[in-house]
């Protein structure tokens, strides 16, 4: 069952203030974006997560919320993202985040934005335990150091480390149980993790394996961890071009006539095209452009029209396979510029739908996809309404460490 996440980015960061020039740690930059964004996108990639509430310091709520909106507009994480103001204590911030959850939410994950390296696998372990009926779940790691209890500078006890664990976030809870723990705690005691509230209520807290890389940015010596985690990258450009002839009902061709699609979107009433696959000239050009970014050859090498398996194949399949190939070689697409050259049909009524569809196929925001249409003023075979052309230009980054 799906869960929501409360992402705590409301701390004051006093221990890092001097080393960070006063910038609160949740707003330090990691790969060019605020620290909390890394954790946010990790939760968004976990299939169990239905939405996220980000809790910001009250004084920063307006400015941080505006930056968050800009980030979402550039690259939407794929789940709803809400904001809430923090409180005086951690538990107050958590409670404010819970208040922002949709009424139907029954399970919640609470995570510190200062743990930016959390991954969907760890998130999934906590969410799965909740789905199996556990009402409070925390990720833990074994303690490897000997732990001694001291008074002043004198050791008073040595604890059995086999019975000790180090606790991480995200911590998962039944929402009703966590709210009940807040009511029970009132203002009488302050805790450093949310599971402690449930323990004070006398309820069981269960564990799942944590992740060593899920470290918390707390002290100045942790700041080197925020050096860019991306391998060196170089800008790349890929160019694609494709042509398809229109079917002439009076002169049947060797290839079958296909209803016109552009960018995977059907163009009703348009001339049919001759093609072995579904004949989407725009996606064919785009596939070649993607391959061009990584020196991957062309669409004919990967999907030859002599292979009967590709008969009437959806061109989105070709693009998807090319994307997998290119991404395995380090490609990150940042923008796509497309041009369709045809006398007929008129594409203005379909421009928006084609852009949205292409953006979805590429996993981009529609603002990263541009589409233009033009004619050749009656010249050439397109001007004589005998066919259609498409040109695609893909720009992006190729991470040098990828093969």
UniProtKB/TrEMBL annotation:
Cofactor needs: a divalent metal cation
Annotated spans, 2-C-methyl-D-erythritol 4-phosphate cytidylyltransferase: 1-235
Reaction it catalyzes: 4-CDP-2-C-methyl-D-erythritol 2-phosphate = 2-C-methyl-D-erythritol 2,4-cyclic diphosphate + CMP; 2-C-methyl-D-erythritol 4-phosphate + CTP + H(+) = 4-CDP-2-C-methyl-D-erythritol + diphosphate
UniProt-listed PROSITE patterns: ISPD (PS01295), ISPF (PS01350)
E.C. number(s) listed in UniProt: 2.7.7.60, 4.6.1.12
Chain residue ranges for the region called 2-C-methyl-D-erythritol 2,4-cyclodiphosphate synthase: 236-403
Protein's UniProt keywords contain Lyase: yes
Gene Ontology MF terms: 2-C-methyl-D-erythritol 2,4-cyclodiphosphate synthase activity; 2-C-methyl-D-erythritol 4-phosphate cytidylyltransferase activity; metal ion binding
2-C-methyl-D-erythritol 2,4-cyclodiphosphate synthase domain residues: 237-395
Record keyword Protein biosynthesis present: no
Site positions for Transition state stabilizer: 15, 25, 276, 375
Residues engaged in binding 4-CDP-2-C-methyl-D-erythritol 2-phosphate: 242-244, 276-277, 298-300, 303-307, 374-377, 381
Pathway: Isoprenoid biosynthesis; isopentenyl diphosphate biosynthesis via DXP pathway; isopentenyl diphosphate from 1-deoxy-D-xylulose 5-phosphate: step 4/6; Isoprenoid biosynthesis; isopentenyl diphosphate biosynthesis via DXP pathway; isopentenyl diphosphate from 1-deoxy-D-xylulose 5-phosphate: step 2/6
Pfam families: IspD (PF01128), YgbB (PF02542)
Protein family membership: In the N-terminal section; belongs to the IspD/TarI cytidylyltransferase family. IspD subfamily.
Function according to Swiss-Prot or TrEMBL: Bifunctional enzyme that catalyzes the formation of 4-diphosphocytidyl-2-C-methyl-D-erythritol from CTP and 2-C-methyl-D-erythritol 4-phosphate (MEP) (IspD), and catalyzes the conversion of 4-diphosphocytidyl-2-C-methyl-D-erythritol 2-phosphate (CDP-ME2P) to 2-C-methyl-D-erythritol 2,4-cyclodiphosphate (ME-CPP) with a corresponding release of cytidine 5-monophosphate (CMP) (IspF).
Name the record gives this protein: Bifunctional enzyme IspD/IspF
Species, as recorded: Solidesulfovibrio carbinoliphilus subsp. oakridgensis
Phylogenetic placement of the source organism: Bacteria, Pseudomonadati, Thermodesulfobacteriota, Desulfovibrionia, Desulfovibrionales
């Amino acid at each position: 069952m799906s869960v929501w996440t409360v992402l705590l980015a409301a701390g004051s960061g006093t221990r890092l203030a001097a080393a960070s020039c006063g910038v609160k740690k949740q707003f330090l930059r990691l790969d060019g974006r605020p620290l909390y964004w890394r954790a946010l996108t990790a939760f968004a990639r976990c299939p169990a997560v239905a939405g996220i509430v980000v809790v910001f310091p009250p004084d920063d709520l307006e400015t941080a919320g505006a930056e968050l909106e800009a980030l979402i507009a550039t690259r939407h994480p794929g789940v709803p993202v809400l904001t809430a103001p923090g409180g005086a204590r951690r538990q107050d911030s958590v409670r404010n985040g819970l208040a922002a959850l949709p009424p139907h939410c029954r399970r919640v994950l609470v995570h510190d934005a200062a743990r930016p390296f959390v991954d969907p696998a760890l998130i999934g372990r906590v969410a799965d335990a909740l789905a199996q009926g556990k009402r409070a779940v925390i990720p833990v790691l074994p303690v490897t150091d000997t732990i001694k209890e001291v008074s002043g500078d004198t050791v008073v006890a040595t604890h059995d480390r086999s019975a000790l664990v180090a606790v991480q976030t995200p911590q998962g809870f039944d929402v009703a149980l966590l709210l009940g723990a807040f009511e029970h705690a009132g203002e009488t005691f302050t805790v450093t993790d949310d599971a402690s509230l449930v323990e004070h209520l006398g309820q069981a807290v269960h564990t799942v394996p944590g992740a060593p890389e899920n470290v918390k940015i707390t002290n100045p010596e942790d700041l080197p961890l925020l050096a860019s985690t991306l391998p060196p990258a170089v800008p790349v450009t890929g160019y694609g071009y494709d042509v398809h002839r229109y079917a002439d009902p009076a002169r049947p061709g060797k290839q079958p006539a296909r209803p016109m699609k552009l960018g995977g979107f059907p163009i009703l009433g348009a001339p049919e095209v001759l093609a072995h696959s579904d004949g989407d000239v725009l996606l064919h050009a785009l596939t070649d452009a993607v391959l061009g970014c990584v020196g991957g050859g062309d669409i004919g090498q990967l999907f030859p029209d002599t292979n009967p398996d590709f008969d009437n194949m959806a061109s989105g399949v070709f693009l998807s396979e090319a994307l997998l190939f290119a991404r395995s070689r380090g490609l990150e697409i940042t923008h796509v510029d497309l041009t369709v050259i045809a006398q007929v049909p008129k594409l203005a009524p379909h421009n928006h739908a084609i852009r949205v569809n292409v953006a979805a196929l590429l996993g981009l925001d529609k603002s990263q996809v541009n589409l233009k249409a033009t004619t050749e003023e009656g010249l050439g075979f397109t001007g004589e309404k005998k066919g259609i052309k498409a040109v695609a230009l893909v720009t992006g980054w190729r991470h040098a460490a990828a093969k």
